[in-house]
Amino acid sequence: MKLKHCITALLLIAAINFTPTRVNAQVEFGDEGGDPDTNVPFDGGIGILVAAGVAYGIKKKYEHNKEQQAEK
């Protein structure tokens, strides 16, 4: 059951990471010039990855402390 929850969480994180919020890499039809900058979402999933890493670290620290308490 625990493996099922982990797989579900990983699939959800992957779906969120690979779904861009805004994609404007192509020039719209009829727009021959103007702003040469393209909008590229560089911060698509960095925040989610950082949050997941922090949560994983906290979980591992909690498990380590729990094992240390059980040994005493």
UniProtKB/TrEMBL annotation:
The membrane-spanning stretches of this chain are 41-58
Keyword check for Signal = yes
Name the InterPro entries on file. Answer: PID_CTERM
Q: Where is the signal peptide?
A: 1-25
Q: Superkingdom of this entry's organism?
A: Bacteria
Keywords per UniProt = Membrane, Signal, Transmembrane, Transmembrane helix
Q: Which NCBIfam families match?
A: PID_CTERM (NF046080)
Q: What is this protein called?
A: WGxxGxxG-CTERM domain-containing protein
The species this protein belongs to is Ilyomonas limi
